[in-house]
Amino acid sequence: NAGVMQNPRHLVRRRGQEARLRCSPMKGHSHVYWYRQLPEEGLKFMVYLQKENIIDESGMPKERFSAEFPKEGPSILRIQQVVRGDSAAYFCASSPSIAGLEKTQYFGPGTRLLVL
Amino acid sequence: GESVGLHLPTLSVQEGDNSIINCAYSNSASDYFIWYKQESGKGPQFIIDIRSNMDKRQGQRVTVLLNKTVKHLSLQIAATQPGDSAVYFCAENSGGYQKVTFGTGTKLQVIP
Q: Which has more confidence, B95 or A85?
């Protein structure tokens, strides 16, 4: 059973460009979470999605950031008009359920975004 | 706001010794706690979890202790090995879904 997959692993963008980060959850998982991590810091929650629904986007900036988890295909975190402050590692996690211990999240390897 | 924090930013341990990583949490409504290990350049890896109705849970070489009275969580690693070198995060959840709040992290350095 493949784990959570993210691509690209590294992404370089110039200021003003768009960044698209993809996440394929583990097989059988219908819940996806995105986190952001700055160097030497913990992970900050951004958004929680289920198929075709955004459940909680309280950690995501109101402007330039958006996320989706379509019925078919990976979840996408999109950052428009990137700025240097967007440089960070972005991690995706998935879980099979929200009940009991099955709500444990499993993380992907992350996408390291560098904005020049 | 509610937060989860760690007492020690860096912990150096001799190979073969036991390691204890501590974590304080402030949300008394938290009912589920997780320890993650993050190696350099990788995503967090689930180690062990514990629910608030337990005070101890054991895994392979790891034990998590929960003291709800003082809102303290610890991770014990037995016979620490070089491969245990990583940053360890405690995380807590108090919601109906897994919106996890991470602490700052403790860097564990194992001295050969």
A: A85
